[in-house]
From TrEMBL:
<dbReference type="Pfam" id="PF00174">
    <property type="entry name" value="Oxidored_molyb"/>
</dbReference>
<feature type="domain" description="Oxidoreductase molybdopterin-binding">
    <location>
        <begin position="111"/>
        <end position="268"/>
    </location>
</feature>
<dbReference type="InterPro" id="IPR014756">
    <property type="entry name" value="Ig_E-set"/>
</dbReference>
<keyword id="KW-0479">Metal-binding</keyword>
<dbReference type="InterPro" id="IPR036374">
    <property type="entry name" value="OxRdtase_Mopterin-bd_sf"/>
</dbReference>
<protein>
    <submittedName>
        <fullName>Sulfite dehydrogenase</fullName>
        <ecNumber>1.8.2.1</ecNumber>
    </submittedName>
</protein>
<dbReference type="InterPro" id="IPR030835">
    <property type="entry name" value="Sulfite_DH_SoxC"/>
</dbReference>
<dbReference type="InterPro" id="IPR000572">
    <property type="entry name" value="OxRdtase_Mopterin-bd_dom"/>
</dbReference>
<dbReference type="GO" id="GO:0020037">
    <property type="term" value="F:heme binding"/>
</dbReference>
<keyword id="KW-0560">Oxidoreductase</keyword>
<feature type="domain" description="Moybdenum cofactor oxidoreductase dimerisation">
    <location>
        <begin position="286"/>
        <end position="404"/>
    </location>
</feature>
<dbReference type="InterPro" id="IPR008335">
    <property type="entry name" value="Mopterin_OxRdtase_euk"/>
</dbReference>
<keyword id="KW-0500">Molybdenum</keyword>
<dbReference type="Pfam" id="PF03404">
    <property type="entry name" value="Mo-co_dimer"/>
</dbReference>
<dbReference type="GO" id="GO:0050310">
    <property type="term" value="F:sulfite dehydrogenase activity"/>
</dbReference>
<dbReference type="GO" id="GO:0006790">
    <property type="term" value="P:sulfur compound metabolic process"/>
</dbReference>
<dbReference type="InterPro" id="IPR005066">
    <property type="entry name" value="MoCF_OxRdtse_dimer"/>
</dbReference>
């Protein structure tokens, strides 16, 4: 641990000037005539809120800024739109459902469990229709996974656009799902599970959001999920049942899951042809780009989360993830990618889930060009924006996993920039 981080008890008791200069902020407060320490406060003088007033707890009013936000000019209507997770204000890795980004093509629908049906048909021995209660009777599993829209960071291809990590990287959430492996339902229906087959999955909403998934993935780790973070899915995340397709683009995570058809080739739906493909320089389309490659971003400091405490101890914090498995290492640069140091991982070993990283440093007040670079278990390392543009041209929308740069000035204000 850095010398400067050790709380100095001796100096604290003496109330010497060395405390203010050398220890973390706060230790100095005791020597001041701080009314929060010396005077009796309201909250200690009167009784608080009774348990009958909070049947379901909401964040305290002082946290009311920690909410999903949308970018109005991005889409024509809020019905077919997106809002963003406030990742600048969260820590750890689990995203509370209430502020986890939403993306839908025809609005979120209200579907009662009693009215819920899931059909499996196509190349199966016996087509089946499951009720919600039927699904609950299959052996279930719990797994934490990230869900990232392939369009996350898509506005940044052309240049540094949006001044906030919520908007540049907030089309992602990370939850603990409870669900039934899709392979169990396919087996129940006697599906043809030969490796050249596909499943076509669709939702009960007007858009239906149909997608083709190769059989190998369907049999691997796909979940038919009905709980997230321990409670029922929220309406906007597909209540009562959604598909969880670990590591693969969010569009395939069909919400309000209504039908699974076993087919002998990909359906080539709108969502996998006109959308969720990228046109390359030579005019060909980069297609079937299912896996979300390794990516990371510093969430604090960042434009919405400036440094407000001045010089001294500073915690740099961020998120890293890979659709290929585990994050093995994250490096952080303070000089725009010239020199790098290895960050401390909050917890290691999670597969296809968010990993939190930290760099605990002493800030001397000098401006910084902050970057982070994720590495995953395949040995892949997150590319720079230049490297990505070289490979993908200028016409891409989806799968922008490049290294992000924040310029932090001497006042601690952070800004979205590009370095070259
Ligand atoms: N039925 C249905 N499923 C859907 C969609 C939709 O519009 N309808 N949107 C998809 C897209 S593009 C994404 S990125 C994810 C977003 O999941 P979320 O709203 O839980 O964040 O859901 C996918 N599943
Ligand atoms: Mo998406």
């Amino acid at each position: 641990m850095d010398e400067m981080f050790k709380p100095s008890r001796r100096a604290f008791l003496k109330g010497s000037a060395a405390v203010a200069a050398g220890s973390v902020a706060g230790a100095a407060a005791a020597q001041n005539a701080d009314p929060l320490i010396t005077e009796l406060q309201d909250w200690a003088s009167y009784t608080g809120v009774g348990v009958d007033e909070t049947p379901y707890g909401m964040p305290i009013e002082y946290e009311s800024h920690v909410v999903r936000r949308n970018v109005e000019w991005l889409t024509a209507s809020p019905i077919s739109s997106i809002n963003f997770t406030p990742i600048h204000a969260l820590d750890g890795t689990i995203t509370p459902q209430g502020c986890a980004f939403e993306r839908h093509h025809s609005g979120a629908i209200e579907l009662r469990k009693e009215d819920y049906r899931l059909m499996i048909n196509g190349l199966v021995d016996k087509p089946l229709v499951f009720s919600y209660a039927d699904i609950e009777r299959f052996p279930r599993e719990n797994h934490v996974y990230f869900c990232e829209c392939a369009a996350n960071t898509g506005m940044e291809w052309a240049g540094a656009q949006l001044n906030g990590v919520q908007f540049t990287h907030g089309m992602i959430h990370n939850m603990e799902y409870t669900g039934v492996p899709l392979r169990a339902l396919l087996k129940e229906a006697g599906a043809d599970i030969s490796s050249d087959k596909w499943v076509y999955v669709e939702g009960a909403d007007a858009s239906s959001n149909g997608r083709s998934i190769p059989m190998e993935k369907a049999l691997d780790d796909v979940l038919v999920a009905f709980k997230a973070n321990g409670e029922a899915l929220r309406m906007e995340h597909g209540y009562p049942v959604r598909l969880v397709v670990p590591g693969w683009e969010g569009n395939m995570w069909v919400k309000w899951l209504r039908r699974i058809e076993v087919v002998d080739r990909a359906v080539e739906s709108r969502e996998e042809t006109s959308k969720y493909t990228d046109v390359l320089e030579d005019g060909t389309a980069r297609k079937w780009t299912w896996v979300m490659d390794a990516k990371s971003v510093i969430t604090s400091p960042s434009p919405q989360q400036p440094i407000t405490h001045g010089k001294g101890p500073l915690v740099i914090s961020g998120l890293a993830w890979s659709g290929h498995g585990q994050i093995t290492r994250v490096d952080v640069s303070k000089d725009g990618g010239i020199t790098w140091e290895t960050a401390r991982l909050g917890k290691q070993g999670d597969i296809k889930a968010l990993t939190r990283f930290y760099v605990d440093m002493m800030w001397d007040g000098a401006p910084m060009l902050l970057q982070s670079r994720a590495m995953d278990e395949t040995g892949y390392s997150q590319p720079t924006k230049e490297q990505l543009r070289e490979k993908r041209g200028e016409n891409s929308v989806y799968h922008n996993n490049c290294i992000q740069t924040w310029y932090v000035n001497a006042e601690g204000i952070a800004e979205n920039v590009e370095v070259s």
